[in-house]
């Protein structure tokens, strides 16, 4: 039966002195006996008899610090984070001061001076750590698809990503986001996404399908609602954009009309980002194909435009350099589209005054609560429709029926 560790230490301590004083022949005999008794291999046994057993390291002393960000701070932080649609720590830290001020102005956040000071000084890394459990639940997935259009391609020049870098407000990228729910057959709603390159100002409209008539009407409506004039439009190569309606519209208004290279989504990177942050994060990947769902989508987008453009900050890439095998990207300080419009020298003072008059009236938390309520309504419409469909045709569940766990999380935090 093998010896216990304490017994091995005792035997080692007794034989170590004899081993060091013994002759070579005697050491061999002691070592043989020691290996049999302890079960150690010969190399290790000779070392500990020669040098003595290794001393145990002292136990680590854990440093106890008082918590800086207690439950009151975390509770307030979660409400600000939920108001801004669960954004990352860097964007949230940049928008913290303006958002806290707006929420306090409308009575949505009432905290002590100490909690307020901690909210305004908390670092992005600490924000992500404090909200890690909440952020882990915000994940959705999906697919995309665009049918190419060939009409008038030769008349519309190609634009790459780098050619609209640093332009003035008014140059926009447009794209369609399909709501097929994983089943591309038949008609289903589409979201027209229009994003200004310089400021990030984003407008969205839902249309019945990809027909040129509906897409063109939605684009004209968006052109009227954007606070500045559109001077350039860039689209992908889909037939919903590459058509005579839009070419004539741009020609009459002296709007620059360009298109991206086929199969190069990076050429439309500004609007592609908003397809995710504005559209998919808010409506998911379910199939919307009824008039009721279309109406709720457009009602949701009407609230979302003010929440996104006045309160949601984003960082813009300012440099991209290669250092050996690494690509180093540097970004500017995150700002809201509203702040970027105010900072632009190319936007008139009248437009800025109109936006400044509108901003104090907006309650970001109330806007987010309204968004969550409309998301709930949209989810219930879709769930009811799919329940009826499964009963009628005895079909299995579709892959992209939305999960309402995110809606529940935000409802709980904001109420």
Number of strands: 7
Cα radius of gyration in angstroms: 32 Å
Mean pLDDT, rounded to whole units? Answer: 84
- Quaternary class: single chain
CATH class categorisation of the largest domain: Alpha Beta
Major beta sheet, specifics?
A: 5 strands, mixed
Report strand order across the widest sheet: 3-2-1-4-5
Number of domains: 3
CATH superfamily (homologous) name of the largest domain: Ribonuclease H-like superfamily/Ribonuclease H
- CATH architectural label of the largest domain: 2-Layer Sandwich
Topology order in helix (H) and strand (E) letters: HHHHHHHHEEEHEHEHHEEHHHH
Which structural class fits the helix and strand makeup? alpha/beta
Question: What attributes characterize this protein structure?
Answer:
16 helices; Nucleotidyltransferase, domain 5; five-stranded mixed sheet; 7 strands; 415 residues
